[in-house]
Write a structure and sequence with these properties.
414 residues; alpha+beta; six-stranded antiparallel β-sheet; 6 strands
Length: 414
């Protein structure tokens, strides 16, 4: 075993195409190897080797295992509800199976980082116990060089997780929601809530109730709109009351009001005039349909869709808390995939440090790191939702703190 490791370390330090036999090493006729130029030494140190490829291949199984574990854990309640629907409500089992398969990409988004942690911890712990790391370091490889294949796989995992979060999960999550809504005979709720105020452009709205994308009992305060300035001054706002309002299907930025009563006021605030109309078209700078837009959640939208939704809600002066939560989720679209590399950076030095403590050290390290990450991520997300931290700071705080700890541990292990 030791002889194999010694040969392995020697192979790791040789340039591509070079070979050394044991007989040549013992022969007095063979001159000692000459030192390589600096550029050649750098190439030898960082070139892709069979060891790198072996470690990279070995990472695949734990990553897939981690994703599978998270999918199973997150789908427990889902599976229970599906079985209950099939048995007690007579739902077609094929439909529930389809819904479960469509939900897997959404569950998998959180599992990729866990799989990376598991892969780094298990493989490095085994490499330390089998003295592979010792042999590589004896051959001149630095700790950073040994860890490069693990970090490379973590970068690939981050890219895959981002693609899953941006291009696959939003579509499948929407399909899951639509299917469940059909089964439960429910419709999408809207961002506009009853008994709430909001504003669009120069108009301030109060809506008593919203049903089937129609606003009922609407009150509108219109200031400096130009619609009634020829009749009365605009010092005080015009007040428009309508029985209902809906979006004009021909012109998206125009809202159609029905059974309208418009009240105008003089400069001193006294009553000026009141007009009644069966129907009135109001031109605003916002599409009414954007305020329900199938009620997509943050994980049912791409980053571009989420950004547009945030802008629409900000322009309409929606509840600041809801806008904050959406902004936190927007930045988490980037911080969640990046966590794969961050966790690999932290898990690597921890695995090197505790691998000698037993065969279960890798598992304990992996699940411990996963737990710490989830707790910290939930904590900072809550601070961001509550307005205690800026949304971007909230989304990236966990990654930033763990990167600092990872670099410190790596410096101690170098």
């Amino acid at each position: 075993m030791w002889l194999q490791l010694a040969i392995l370390s020697l192979y790791f330090s040789l340039p591509a195409g070079a070979s050394v036999t044991l007989a040549a090493m013992d022969s007095p006729l063979v001159s000692p190897p000459q030192p390589l130029p600096a550029t050649s030494r750098a190439y030898v140190a960082w070139r892709l080797t069979a060891i790198d490829r072996a470690y990279a291949r070995e990472m695949l199984t734990p990553i897939l295992l981690g994703v599978l574990v998270i999918v199973l854990v997150l789908s427990v309640n889902f599976v229970y509800a599906g079985i209950n629907s099939v048995i007690n409500q007579g739902v077609d089992p094929g439909i529930m199976l389809r819904v479960f398969l469509l939900a897997i990409p959404g569950f998998s988004v959180q599992g990729v980082a866990i799989g990376v942690i598991l892969g780094v911890c298990l493989i490095l712990s085994r490499a330390v116990r089998d003295n592979e790391v010792m042999a590589l370091r004896a051959g001149g490889a630095s700790v950073i060089r040994i860890l490069m294949p693990f970090w490379f796989m973590a970068v690939l995992a981050s890219a895959a997780d981002y693609a899953l979060l941006e291009y696959v999960a939003p579509r499948t999550n929407v399909m899951v929601k639509k299917t469940l809504q059909k089964l439960m005979h429910t419709s999408a709720t809207q961002l506009i809530e009853g008994d709430k105020y909001f504003h669009v452009d120069k108009y301030y709205f109060y809506v008593q109730d919203v049903q089937d994308k129609v606003l009922h009992n609407v009150m509108i305060y219109a200031r400096n709109t130009g619609d009634f300035t020829s009749i009365a001054t605009a010092t005080y706002p015009s007040v428009i009351i309508a029985r209902e309002a809906h979006e004009d299907p021909q012109k998206p930025n125009r809202w159609i009001l029905s059974d309208v009563v418009t009240t105008l006021y003089n400069d001193d605030g006294s009553f000026s005039k009141q007009m009644r109309m069966k129907e009135f078209a109001l031109n605003v700078g916002q599409q009414l349909s954007q305020f329900w837009a199938e009620d997509k959640g943050p994980f049912e939208m791409t980053k571009d869709e989420l950004g547009k939704q945030i802008n629409a809600m900000q322009n309409a002066a929606f509840d600041a808390g809801k806008v904050r939560e959406m902004r936190v989720q927007y930045y988490r679209h980037f911080s969640m995939p990046a966590a794969c590399f961050v966790m690999a950076l932290l898990a690597a030095p921890l695995s090197l440090k505790f691998a000698r403590h037993g065969s279960f050290a890798g598992l304990v390290c992996a699940f411990g790191l996963a737990f710490v990450y989830q707790v910290m991520d939930s904590f900072f997300s809550a601070l961001g939702n509550a307005g205690r931290l800026e949304p971007m700071v909230s989304a990236w705080s966990t990654n930033a703190i763990l990167i600092v700890f990872g670099l410190l541990l790596l410096w101690r292990e170098r």
